[in-house]
Amino acid sequence: MRTGVTISASYAASNRPPVQPARSLRNNEEGKVVLRVMVQADGTAGEVQIRSSSGFPLLDEAARSAVQTWRFNPATSDGKPVAEWYLVPIIFKLSN
């Protein structure tokens, strides 16, 4: 009998943050993108959807592209890795 997810997915601290596109920097674009990621049982990112846009397509795509390559700690159920949707917030902020 499956008891449901006992440990939720998370992302590995070693993942490289997305790079803010040069054009976005020139245009002073900043914001928060929230991605919905299907974390596979093997820790890779399956489907990556934009759950909440930053309002800037370049930032949204930079976040989506980067997270697509990330490694995750998969969720577990009954001690076995399982696929699970996971929300990943990405913040692009201009430096002063």
TrEMBL record:
It is found in: Cell inner membrane. Residues 1-13 have a biased composition (Polar residues). Keywords: Cell inner membrane, Cell membrane, Membrane, Protein transport, Transmembrane, Transmembrane helix, Transport. SUPFAM superfamilies: TolA/TonB C-terminal domain. Its main location: membrane. Residues 1-26 are annotated as: Disordered. InterPro entries: TonB-dependent_transducer, TonB/TolA_C, TonB_C. It is a single-pass membrane protein. Residues 5-96 form the TonB C-terminal domain. PANTHER family: PROTEIN TONB, PROTEIN TONB-RELATED. Belongs to the TonB family. This is TonB family C-terminal domain-containing protein. It comes from Noviherbaspirillum suwonense.
